[in-house]
Amino acid sequence: MAAQATAMKVTVERGGAGTESHRQSFDVPAYENQTVLDVVSWIQQNADPTLTYRFACRVGMCGSCAMMVNGVPRWTCRTHVSRVLKDGALHVGPLRNLPVIKDLAADMDPFFDKWVAAEGRHHPTRSREEEIQPVDPAAPERQTASAGIECINCAICYSACDTVAGNPDYLGPAALQRAWTVYNDAKDANKGAILDAVSGKGGCHSCHSMGSCTQYCPNDLDPLSAILGLKRATTRRFFKGAK
Amino acid sequence: MEFRLYMAQRLSALVMAPFVLVHIGVMIYAIQGGLSAAEILGRTQGSALWFAFYGMFVIAVSIHAAIGLRTILLEWAGLRGTLLNAAAALIGVGLFALGAQAVLAVTL
Amino acid sequence: MIVARAHPLWLAYILHRLSGLALALFLPLHFWVLSMAVTDAARLDAFLTLTDMPLVKLAEFGLVFLLAVHVFGGLRLLALEWLPWSAPQKTWAAAAVAGSFLVSTTFLLRAI
User: Fold this and answer.
1) Residue where one domain finishes, among candidates A61, A87, A106
2) Residue B72 and residue B95: Cα distance in Å, rounded?
3) How many beta-carbon contacts under 8 Å exist across A and C?
4) Which residue among A81, C61, C82, C103 is the one 20 to 30 A from A119 at the CA level?
5) ipTM, 2 decimals?
6) Which domain-ending residue is among A49, A71, A106?
7) Is the minimum CB–CB distance between C84 and chain A shorter than 8 Å?
C-alpha cells in the first residue's frame, strides 16, 4: 500500500453483440508503475469479475491485448498508464473498426479474413525434392520484405485507419503489408496473384496515405510504405502491360 | 474496376497539374485592374489554343471530380453498388456538360 | 469514442479531401457564371463587379488557396506513390501547404 497514493478514474466500455453498449466507471488504485492491462486486470479481479477482455503473453509479442485507450489504439500490456493519462483519467474501449464480442474483446475474424483475401500466403518456387533456394539477406528485396515481418497481428493499424472505418471492404494496413512482404520474397512464385488480390475492391488503391497505421504501430513498422510499394508495383505492371 | 478508377484519377491529375498552374497564373494576371466580360472574352474568344486548353481541362476535371466524389460518397455517405456508380457517372456527365457549355461560351 | 488522429499526414489527407470536395462543389457555379458570357454578357459583368467587394475578394483568396493546396497536396501524393521515396514525407506535406499559402497570398496581394 505504500506506493498507493490516490484512486484513478477509469471508465470502461461495456456491452457487446446484442446488448446495449455503455460506460462504467471504476476507481482503481493508482501506482507509480502500472500498465493499462494491469488496470483492466485489477478491475476484473477486484471490482467486476464479469469484465471480458483478452490478453496472453504480457510482453508485447502475441498481439492479443490491443484496446482503445483514451481514443488511441494501443497494446495495453506495454502501455504505461502514466504515459497516456488524460487529466488523471483513463477511458478504455474495444478496438475500433471491429465487431465487439463482449466488453473489451473485439471479434478479430474480419481482420484475419482480410489477411487471407490479400493473398499474403506463400506460393512455393520449388518442391521438397529440390535444393532449398538460397536467400541473400543483403538483397534490396529481402531488406524490404524484412522491414515488415515483425507484425504481431494486433490490429492496431486496422483500428487506427479511417479508410477502414468508411469502407468496410478495405483490406487494411496489416493484410496489405503482409502481401507486400510476400511479394518481395525471393521464394515466392506467384507475384501476379498478389498484385491481382490487392488491386480488387478494397485493395491497396483504396488507401489515402493518411499514415495512421505507421503512426500507431507499436512495433514501429511502416505499413504505409508497404501499401505505397504495392501501388507502385501495380502501376508499373499497368504501364508494362503485363498480365 | 478499383484499379482502373485509381489510374484514371492519377492520370487526370497529372494532366491537370500544369493546367492548374497556368490557370492560377492567368488569374493572377487577369484580375489586375478588375474583371470584365469583355476582357475575358477578348483573351479567349476565337482562340483554338484556349479552346484546346480549357476543353482538355474540363474533360480531365470531370473525370477527376467524379472519381473523387465517388470515394467521398462511399466512405462518408455510405453509398454502395449501382447507386454509387450511377451517382458518380451523373456527376461526371453533369460537370462535363456544364464545363463544355462554359468553354464554348468563352471561346467560340 | 473520440479518436486521436492529429498527426501531419492525417492532416494532409483531410486537407486534400476537404479542398477537393469544396472545389467540386464550386465548379458548377464557376461554369454557370462563365456560360453567361454568351447568353447575357451584361449579367456576367454585373456578377464580375461583385469581385470588387472585400468579402468576395476573401472568398476568392479562399478558392485559390483550396486549388493550390489541392494541387500541391496531389503532387505530394503522386510523388509518394510513384517515386521510390521513403514515407512518411511530413516535410512534403508541410511544403505543400506552405507553397499553397505563397501562391494564394500572391493572388490576394494582386487582387487588393
Assistant:
1) A106
2) 17
3) 65
4) C82
5) 0.90
6) A106
7) yes
